[in-house]
Design a protein that fits this description.
single chain; binds adenosine monophosphate; 333 residues; 12 helices; five-stranded parallel sheet; five-stranded antiparallel sheet
């Protein structure tokens, strides 16, 4: 029964939404917080219990408390970025999602193969800086939130900007509008749901247009993509059939990658060109913070549900249904 389990997550990223959603579904909640980061979780009253730790690695010191409480841990990017995939695999507490899909997600090469095998359009990748023949974006590995990415259009410029200690990839820069697509795949109902869209607010790239070109020329600005927030978006309706097809395709192909495949929330990160081609430059195989704009539900979840359905709440509902049907093994990894 729901009351026999608790929902736990780390206090950052999408924890407010996850914990609120869990409470709305009748679960007791636990927020694991770094010292000094607990105020939002107390103020918004989303956590029945707050466990304070000094560093993310101290998670393992408090894990037994979670296990005793029959807690189900919901992963998000902050947990993955700060604990790391290898530590995540050592988690013994109940864990929502498939830990193995994270290995595919965090390896840009494997991720790209997954997207391409799913028939999605991806930006061209340049193996060698010598091959750069157009505007490219240089990215680093891991969930760094766009920090330090830079644009380049030649080998010479690349060599000037690159920090040689870092593992990077060079990708064709797609000129269009960025659109983040949020999905939820239910392993219980075996159905894909479209949860909504968002647009990111990144510093400083989203502010370059506030400076006139004549002033930009005299200032050595480097564009950077550090995420600071998210904005709501609805998509041109005629693009929705393609959006569903894309989501279904990545779920189908994920079954060749891990035993349980991709399930729960995930996001396709795209740029849509003036020809309405949807280029997918990344996949996140877990809840993304862009869903925080829909804590009270999105225009799309409103169509399907009679109550506010955030992605956090949708996770809790899936767990609740799995408990009821005695199928928890389908949602825990
Ligand atoms: P934080 O806990 O805010 O330091 O975030 C950890 C990681 O989660 C960042 O490096 C980002 O990759 C990701 N992240 C956090 N917030 C957002 C957001 N609002 N949108 C997209 N990604 C985010
Ligand atoms: P990511 O860390 O992959 O989510 O990328 C951070 C940001 O860089 C995105 O939100 C986009 O604004 C931008 N971006 C990433 N890849 C591309 C691309 N191939 N073309 C254009 N913009 C991109």
């Amino acid at each position: 029964m729901t009351k026999d389990f608790k929902i736990a997550t780390f206090g950052s990223h999408s924890a407010l939404q996850i914990l609120k959603g869990a409470k709305d579904e009748g679960f007791k909640t636990i927020c694991i917080c770094l010292k000094g980061r607990d105020q939002p979780y107390r103020s918004f009253k989303v956590a029945d219990e707050i466990i304070i730790i000094d560093s993310y690695y101290d998670y393992f010191k408090i894990e037994n408390d979670l296990i005793k409480n029959n807690a189900i841990l919901i992963p998000h990017a902050s947990m993955i970025a700060y604990l790391g995939n290898e530590n995540i695999k050592k988690i013994k507490a109940n864990y929502f999602g498939d830990k193995h899909i994270l290995d595919v997600e965090s390896d840009r090469e494997k991720q790209r193969t997954w997207l391409m095998n799913s028939g999605l359009i991806t930006p061209k990748k340049f193996q060698n800086p010598e091959d750069i023949d157009r505007l490219c974006i240089v990215k680093f590995h891991g969930a760094s939130g766009g920090k330090g990415y830079f644009l380049t259009n030649s080998k010479e410029d690349f060599n000037k900007k690159i920090d040689s200690g870092k593992k990077f990839i060079i990708q064709e820069y797609i000129v269009g509008v960025p659109v983040y697509i949020h999905y939820f795949y239910s392993p219980i109902k075996q159905e894909l749901e479209l949860m909504g869209f968002d647009k990111r607010y990144e510093s400083n790239v989203d502010s370059i247009g506030r400076i006139a070109a004549k002033d930009q020329i005299h200032t050595p600005i480097e564009t950077s993509y550090n995420i600071t927030g998210n904005m709501p978006l609805v998509l041109r309706e005629s693009l929705l059939p393609e959006v569903f097809k894309m989501g279904e395709s990545v779920v189908k192909i994920s079954n060749n990658l891990t035993s349980k495949g991709l399930f729960g929330p995930f996001c396709l990160e795209t740029v849509i060109t003036p020809d309405l081609e949807i280029f997918v430059f990344e996949i996140s195989a877990r809840i993304v913070a862009g869903t925080n704009i829909s804590t009270n539900g999105s225009p799309y979840t409103f169509l399907r549900y009679d109550e506010p359905m955030s992605t956090g709440r949708r996770i809790a509902r899936e767990i609740k249904q799995a408990i009821k049907l005695n199928q928890l093994n389908k949602v825990l990894g």
